[in-house]
Amino acid sequence: MNEEINIIVCIKQVPDPEGPPSAFQVDSKEMWVIPKGIPPVLSPFDENALESALHIKDTNKNVRITAISMGKKLARAVVIKALAVGADEIILLEDKNFDPKRLDCYSVAYVLATAIKKIGKYDLILLGRQAADWNFGQVGSGIAEIFEIPSITLAQNVKLEDGNVMVERVLPDGYEVIRVSMPVLITVSHEVGDLRYPSMHDIKKSKNKPITTWNIRDLGIELPQGHINLLKLFVPKQEKTCHFVEGESLEEAGANLALKLKEDKII
C-alpha cells in the first residue's frame, strides 16, 4: 500500500461526562442541559475513534489523519489534543450558527459532510459510536448516507489489509469480522481502548501543526431545517419506599422477607 491513506476523524467537545449529577441542570422550558462548573473535554467515544486512527497510522506510515471539530465556540486547549497525540491537522468548524441548541443530528451530519467534501480527499471516516452528551449515535450514519458510502457501526478493531479495511464489529455475544473497500465510514466503540497520552515532546511538536478554521461562509452553506423535534426534556422522578421486615427470630424474618418479595413479584 503505497498511496497515501486519508483518515478523517470527527471529534466533539462535550461537558465532562464524569462530572457529578449536581453539575448538570436540566432546563425543561428551553429543553437543554446546562453544565455548571465542569470543564469541556473531547467526547470519550470520539477519543476511541482517534485512537483507532492512530493504531492504523502506527502500522501504516503512509497514513494522514485530519481531525474535524464543530461548535459555536471551541476550547482550543481541548480540541488541539488531537494534534498532540498524533493527528496531522485539525480543522475547526466554528460559527455562531453552529450553536448546539439550533442543530439536530441531520444538521450536524450535513455540516461535517460539507467540510469533508471541502477537504477533498478521504478514504476512511471515523467517529465515536455516539456522543457522550446526547448519545443519539446518528451523525455517523447520516454522513455515510450523504456520501452514499458503506457504514459500519460498533467497531472494536479497525485495520488496513491489502487495500481494504478489516473491522471487528461488536455483537451481544461476541463479534463479527467485516471486510470492506474504501471509502467507508466507521463508528468506533470503547472496546478499542482509551486514547494514548501525549508526551511533552509531542505536545511541543503539535504547536507547529496546521490548524484551519472555517465558518459557515467558508463552507458556502445554509443550515438545513431540522428533522428531529425534541418534545420533552426532564429529570425523571424517582420514588423510594422502605419496608421493615420483622420476625421473632432470624429464620422467621427471612421467611417473611421471602414472602414479601414474592408478594411484590420480585421473586
From TrEMBL:
Residues 30-223 form the Electron transfer flavoprotein alpha/beta-subunit N-terminal domain. InterPro entries: ETF_a/b_N (IPR014730), ETF_b (IPR012255), ETF_beta_N (IPR033948), Rossmann-like_a/b/a_fold (IPR014729). Transmembrane segments: none annotated. GO terms for molecular function: electron transfer activity. Gene3D superfamilies: HUPs. SUPFAM superfamilies: Adenine nucleotide alpha hydrolases-like. This is Electron transfer flavoprotein beta subunit/FixA family protein.
